Amino acid sequence: MKTRINELLISYREIYRGPNWIEVSLQPVLADVDSTLAFTDPPGNRNSIAKIVCHLVFIRQYLIKKLQGDLSTVIDQDKSFNTAAYGSHPETAWQNLQEELARTFQEITDLLPAAEPALLEKQVLPRDYSFDYLIAGIIQHEAYHTGQLEFLKKQLQQLALNK
């Protein structure tokens, strides 16, 4: 089972830093995003880059709390996209979001290797799934949103050029 923890850890690192099979990783996608682009609302009432990053941070914080044994933490989807907690000024909020994204990545990559292999089979209370399922799902979730962010970034950059 320690091998499974290592597999999950490798996949998580690859989605964040690369390289990986899907050829897009979160850290490089966000490297050239400034606060203006991050907080630009895309056409069609969709979430901004900053809101999606905030959502990823929120889900990571959920995982961290669960790994630390917090049974009361639940996911509030609406709250997960709320960037207000990171600052009212876009430059400050974007900087804080990026720092929290890096911090939560580091904390998860510190917690996983220290976990006992039996953790993966444990139920994530009060939910009806295991830690293995949760961690694998969060990796898939980050892969999905990384692709979304890459597409959104290109779309917003093109719209800015056409103005």
UniProtKB/TrEMBL annotation:
InterPro entries tied to this protein: DinB-like, DinB/YfiT-like
Where does the DinB-like domain lie? 27-149
Q: What is this protein called?
A: DinB-like domain-containing protein
Pfam hit, one? DinB_2
Q: Which Gene3D superfamilies match?
A: dinb family like domain
Organism in which the protein naturally occurs: Adhaeribacter pallidiroseus
The taxonomy runs: Bacteria, Pseudomonadati, Bacteroidota, Cytophagia, Cytophagales
